Protein 1
Amino acid sequence: MNQPMIRVRDLRKSFPARRVLDGVSFDVSQGEAFVIIGGSGSGKSVTLKCILGLMKPDAGEIMIDGMAIRPADTGLMARFGMLFQGGALFDSLAVWENVAFRQIHTGAMTRREARDSACETLGLVGLGEDVADLLPAELSGGMMKRVALARAISTRPDIVFLDEPTTGLDPIMADVINDLIVQVSRRLGITTISITHDMASARKIADRIAMLHDGRLVWQGSAADIDRSGSDHVDQFINGRAEGPISMSVLRP
Amino acid sequence: MNPLASIGATFLAFLAGTGRLVLFAALGLASCVTPPWQFRNIGRQIIDIGYYSLPVVGLTAIFTGMVLALQSYTGFSRFEAEGAIAGIVVLSVTRELGPVLAGLMVAGRVGAAMAAEIGTMRVTEQIDALMTLQASPRRYLVAPRLIAATLTLPVLVLVADIIGVMGGYLVSIHKLGFNPSVYLANTIDILEPIDVISGLVKAAVFGFLVALTGCYHGWHSRRGAQGVGQATTLAVVSGSILILTFNYVVTEIFFSR
């Protein structure tokens, strides 16, 4: 059997107030689009940050191509791209400088070359050269997500992480972003790990879906099988029902 | 709660905070002295800290010099010691008031802005984004600010010294009726290089402290607008207290006999 590109085993992470991850394990193959779904506070972002090396897990193993990751490993970061939930674009830099930040910062390109490269990448996400000199504050929500996606793929990384890629967008723009993610990742042969609670997005971009609840993966399988998962947790979540095994801590009237 | 336990907990929290600040300063300094340096960011910070602080520091200095001359005259004329006013003004401005007031003004303007900017970057995940883009946030954000503030504040203080002495001169000549050439001669006679140098060393120390507290509180900002607001307030308060504390320490080093 082929070695998975990303291998996560028994990942555990606690904060003083509560346990967030309680033994999360999954594999992601090269070129696969893996989506983790789950409610707010289920540990999705923490899982992503642990894999990225932005957060140190209490226990567990994370391996990329058979190599254990170390926190803030810049060599490994060269293989990653990340789309943050709010974009996390640098306010003081123009759009093209955001997109080509890594190339400029590492000295891989001159500023002129980096600008050309950024414009080319902006083209991949459907943005013209006219936005290259704008500041992030001048962009709409949808454009900001596209720029953030462009930045994530600008160095053609092996693995791209997507944190709630459609949050804050209207349904049509969300679908446009989903289409872009699918197109770009297939075209560039990128492996993606996304976290979302938007089921329309998960169905569109995922090859495989896993559901995280209370720090554990309660189900994982093919995206095509999610409607017949046999898991009450998944059924409740994908149908958006208040009643079921997932109880939200809200005051009932 | 037991009052002694409360005092102990507060003291332990203070020690832990001091330890974190010292560690942050050490890591920041390490980023300052090792390549690669972010020359573009350093240049941008020098303009922001130095050039844009000139009006506020200049205004503070000129009015301080003017008030100093006026107040000294009120007191010294009682003892017919008006001749000492030029010396009082120049020594007070170069040794103490220039660096301390410039430091406090920069702490209010620049330290707060640094805390707000870095705090916002923290809560909007821009600092995480830097790490995913192979950039060390300390090297990219903290080191340029520390370097720029340490280099720029002495220049600002030198300008403040000149403007402050000029303020005293203007009041002494045009309001108090001093002879211009005698006033200038008194000013130059009493001034020694150590007076200016000690002020400039203080300014470098204050610049470092302002940038350090601004970056530190922004870096450790909690989530939300309230967290960033609190970081800004803490940056100004702790920066100002450290300036006043280290003003005594540097004065003691230079002038204790």
Note: The first helix of chain B runs from residue 3 to 33.
Protein 2
Amino acid sequence: MSANPPNQVPSPDSETKALRWGLVIFFLLVLFGLIAYGIRGVIPPTDVREINGYSPWSEEVVDAASAIPVQDGGRIKPLATFARFKMLTFHGSLTMKVKSGGTVHKIGPVEWLLDCMFRPELVDDLPVFRLDDSDILKPFGIETQERRARLSFNDIEDGGDSEENGFQKLINRGRDLLKKREESGEGSLIPNEKKTVEFAQLVLNYTGIRDSFDILRGGLPELDPKQLAYVDEDVLKMLEKVSDPSRFSYWMPVVDRVIASTRRLETPQAREFEYELNRQLTFAKYGPVVLPPQSKDEEEWHSLGNGLEKFLQGKLEEPTVMMQDFKTIEDLGKSAQKPNSDEFLKNLTEWKDDLRERAEARDEGGKVDSEVTYYERNYFMHALIWFIVAFVVSAIGWIVREGKGGQIVGWITSILYVTAIAYLLAGIVHRFVITGRPPVSNLYDTIPFISAGAVIVLGISELLTRRRILLSIGAALGVIGLFFAFRFELGDAKDNMDPLRAVLDSNYWLATHVVTVTIGYCGGLVACFLSMVYVFLALAGVMKDPKAFHRFMTRTVYGITCFTLLFALVGTVLGGIWANDSWGRFWGWDPKENGALLIVLWSLIILHCRLAGWMKGWGIHLMSILGGSVVVFSWWGVNMLEVGLHSYGFIKGASTVYYFYFATLVAFSVGVVGWGIEKFQQKQSPKKPPSPPGV
Amino acid sequence: MSDSKKEISLGKRVFRILSGFEIAVVCLSLLFVLTFFGTIEQKWFGLWATIHKYFDIESIYVLPSRGDGKLIFFPLPGAYWVIVVLGINMFLGAIIRARKGWKKFGVLLSHCAILFMLIAGAVSSVTKEEGHMRVLQGEQSDYAQKLFKHDIEIFQYDENGAREQPVIVRSKHIKTLGPKDKLNATFEKFDFTLQVDHFLPVAELALDSPSSPAPEGVEVVDGFFLAETEKNIQQEEANTPGCYVTVKDKSGGPIQRLVLWAGNPYPVSFTHEGKRYGVTYLMEVWPMPFMVELHKTIGEDHPGTSIPRWFQSNITKIDGKQREDYKIIMNEPARHGGYTLYQAGYTKAAEGETPSSTFAVVKNPSDRWPEYALYASTFGLLIHFITMLFRFTGGSRPKKLKTTESSVS
């Protein structure tokens, strides 16, 4: 990088102004095109289905169901959270729309799960499955109008032929492919085959949830209990004590003997009964894990199926409680025929209260309400909206920049900016309260944290320098960061508040190493965005006083690079010390460690080149833009390699990072062009006197 | 100007070059490129192979390549040696040559600390030893095994069938053998020699049977043969070597042909002049200067998952007559006499079985040096950057708030 006095930014020249603007517009179009392409991938196709007789669940019912405690992912969480991530897994979105009687109803995660539990006859028509490549379903006779589609279970089942329906064909194909993978290795499947396996597993998981309550819906084929008496007289005697043969709780005390007896009965009814009972018992294991264990020493809650297993094995301290649970759910199912009746709400509320009481008696589920509130408040969405508004107002400030009007716009921008930060921080703090661990424990956590860090660093810089431009950049960064957080949550579809594995579960190291290195990421990204803004504005030549602007931006970027180096270096070494205490070595050239080292090295190259006088204005900005890619590689790229000891951070896809790499390349190209134009202008007017150093 | 240049001695010129920014920036840039390629290549060749290729002391130069073996960059110097040059440059430039004074104290301190960290790395790479020790609950152990080194041990059985003191053919002599190379080992203790051949770094012992016969040209010994398998790039310890061995008498005549595989924990035996001998090919045994007694190993998963939540090993270190109790939990190893024991794994016991803990044992004189370097470098950088921040804010804020010199027009 040759020496380049940073102060020699000429005023916009009329000869090159048109060219400059042309280039800026071209590059901005490329950037916006890129963003639009990225957004297109995020927004799934909307499909409003007509479902006759669909009546929405009332708000009270949804509220009551939301706060039911369930065990999932190693912790007790609200049913609302369980439903949220299940729906994201299948549907890729948190709402679906259906039309009934001319009215469009929005179905959220809890409503959808309630439908699965109590109105399965309706859910198979809901467009539950998001499919990004419908070509994979063509071999099963399932056709869609567009490549990206939303499908219902019935759409899938309607495919196929007279021998096998589409669902059966899909599942059988999925099994064959899994077998092939087991025998010949991961690499033996082509991309479409991998997608087929994933989709088949998704559909199978859906049927698991949908059918998990079948056992309590009274859907067993008719079988006269007297038939059983031929092979087991005791069964009949026991059954006679129970009143209603249409309920599973009627069979429950003797279900194992009923199965044994039906096996010995040679009638087709008995075969059908046995098959259906076994199927329902199996699927009962796949639903939400809602039944607290009866023993205090036991930590694992039970699904209906697992609870029943314990019941039949005689391993329960109070079997009658389990029987009561089954009866309660049966009653719920019956009253759900009128979904918004007082009876259903009363039954649901009583069941929820009972489960919560039992959980509280075990010192569990204390944060269920707080978590429901967290998702209801939707802090990050509010922060996103406030950042957008702050950005728009700050943009007005570029035009109305002087006088009273300018001051007012400046104040409004500041208030909006602070409000957005407050929402963002409130969300981060609320997560911290729920999980009880530092707010950077997984990849998702790092996104709002880095966004908050970046907007705060830029806010403080604005406070120190009072140039206004930094608030605009901060607001834009806030929007990008939070948009990315939503994108990641949708794509990942995993509950990011689930507990950590043992080696990570150290608040000391999370609060020191992870926080420090993440602040380092934050610094690198802020410097990158500042430089991006600089090169676009410098190329456009729209600054009133280019020299002062150049000097200010270069000094700021340089200062933030120092900040990045400090935090990245300290964070990296702290990580080494943690690794030494966990794995017995300080440095192992693991991808995640290397990623952090790359940021340190990149910052050091910039600082040493600057010290040697080889890199000043443009050089620092161009390096800083590429530094953004280095940060993103360290933050996300290395996780996509799927190698090393940081296996808990592996991700698949995350194609958004490629857009970022491309965006930095575009900005870098803009910078090179801007630098070239400046050099050209310097050659054209060699008599210009040198100005004082810029940095 | 030219006169003054002439006055500079050759030594000074060399010193200036060695301590200059040029070398610093070139080294940092090379290290960046090497680290980058040394990271992405792990995707194709795995962690261990890539580390050895890029960062080992033996790597004088490297050829970055893709998964298909095609070169993706021109040859680069090995990272270890780049770091050595960078260390020398840092010592000469940032410590000897740099201006000294209070204003430069922070920079000087941080460079000293980073240099100390590099020295810690060098000491570690030369002297560090590591192995794994598995202990059953209620039992003791006084040795660890080195995961990536496999020795051949030859021993004689006494009249009671107990093993006598073995002689050892070290891993370093075996692992460098090619498939057609032969290694002849002679022993003072025994009147026979050993010839090692057909060494395979990744192999499995297979039974020659009608359903899976040995491939043509592959030697079968006592119904078994060595089959070359694909290298596991994710888990180096899963790669088990094997070799064939011929026991020869002093005249060179063959006594017995053996097939050795490092995954076989049992010795293969032969008889020579009425005496019975055993041969094993196992991970190198690393004797400890103390005994570890495992009292209890406890581990839990998060409920309803297979994600480990917590684990702990209660041990006693017995060093002569000295007994000391330790609790080893995640992120908290036990340190004693230069050795550090980490919990590397535990096995839950099924009914009727005994649980066990596996400890990673590390002996590293520079174990805590990076920590000390961290404190010093953080302190130095903080002083330096805070000073710079004050200078920056002093010169960056416009004198009048209304000035809009940098706003967009």
Note: Residues 215-335 of chain A form one domain.
